[in-house]
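Dear H.,

Thanks for agreeing to be a second pair of eyes. The structure we're designing against is below in token form, covering all 240 positions.
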């Protein structure tokens, strides 16, 4: 694993955007991208790097996960988020966007997504944030994992963490459709992003515990041959 500790958000977003940009700067690349507050400054940088660049005209963009039951146009959907922060600002065609549709029948959507992933065989790069409970996409701590795209019950910790994105009376979906660990582990490269003091404990645990357990999903990434973890100084403790 490669660990990159950045001084501040400016350095963090530059380092992460450059790594993503270089990983997909070739035709036929495929990338799977996350939502959340962590990648927002990274997407800002990527927009400025990609907006006049035609090199991405064949790149396939997937999303890691999606709330079950939400239309892609719903303002809380992850498809909407990625459009708003990245896709609508860069010169790509709709056919390049292979996003999970939360409004489709969830079982059918999981199968459809696996078929789309099978067509590219594996991702060039999967980018992911990290939950405070160590979740990766919506693979929440559990006794076992489902390898491929599946319906996930969102944990109480994650519901609480994500509540901040929803309006006071807005109902939060309790289920999500998520990529499974099989396709994450098959990716040529995995880039993990974490910033801010709320991620300090999960990063400390990941870097210090050399145990792999489904109760701490991020720990499985210890087995990935090309993992880069990029953190800012607030998410990193010197005492590891
Ligand atoms: P965050 O979410 O970037 O909003 O902290 C990360 C995650 O839950 O995976």
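And this is the sequence the design step returned. I haven't edited it by hand at all.
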């Amino acid at each position: 694993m490669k660990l990159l500790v950045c001084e501040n958000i400016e350095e963090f977003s530059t380092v992460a955007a450059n790594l993503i940009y270089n990983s997909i700067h070739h035709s036929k690349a495929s990338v799977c991208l996350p939502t959340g507050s962590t990648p927002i400054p990274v997407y800002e940088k990527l927009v400025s790097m990609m907006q006049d660049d035609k090199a991405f005209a064949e790149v396939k963009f997937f999303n890691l996960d999606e709330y079950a039951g939400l239309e892609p146009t719903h303002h809380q959907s992850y498809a909407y988020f990625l459009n708003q922060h990245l896709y609508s600002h860069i010169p790509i065609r709709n056919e390049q966007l292979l996003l999970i549709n939360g409004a489709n029948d969830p079982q059918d959507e999981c199968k459809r997504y696996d078929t789309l992933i099978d067509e590219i065989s594996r991702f060039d790069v999967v980018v992911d944030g990290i939950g405070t409970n160590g979740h990766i996409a919506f693979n929440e701590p559990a006794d076992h994992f489902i390898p491929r795209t599946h319906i996930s019950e969102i944990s109480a910790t994650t519901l609480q963490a994500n509540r901040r994105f929803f309006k006071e009376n807005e109902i939060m979906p309790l289920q999500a459709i998520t990529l499974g660990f099989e396709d994450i582990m098959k990716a040529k490269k995995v880039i993990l992003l974490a910033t801010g003091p709320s991620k300090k404990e999960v990063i400390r645990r990941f870097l210090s515990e050399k145990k792999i357990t489904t109760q701490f999903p991020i720990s499985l990434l210890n087995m990935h041959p090309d993992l880069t973890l990029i953190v800012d100084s607030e998410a990193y403790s010197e005492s590891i």
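Two observations from my side: Helices lie at 9-24, 40-50, 78-85, 106-120, 156-162, 181-186, 200-208. The pocket of 2-phosphoglycolic acid is lined by residues 36-38, 129-131 (CB under 6 Å).

Warmly,
E.
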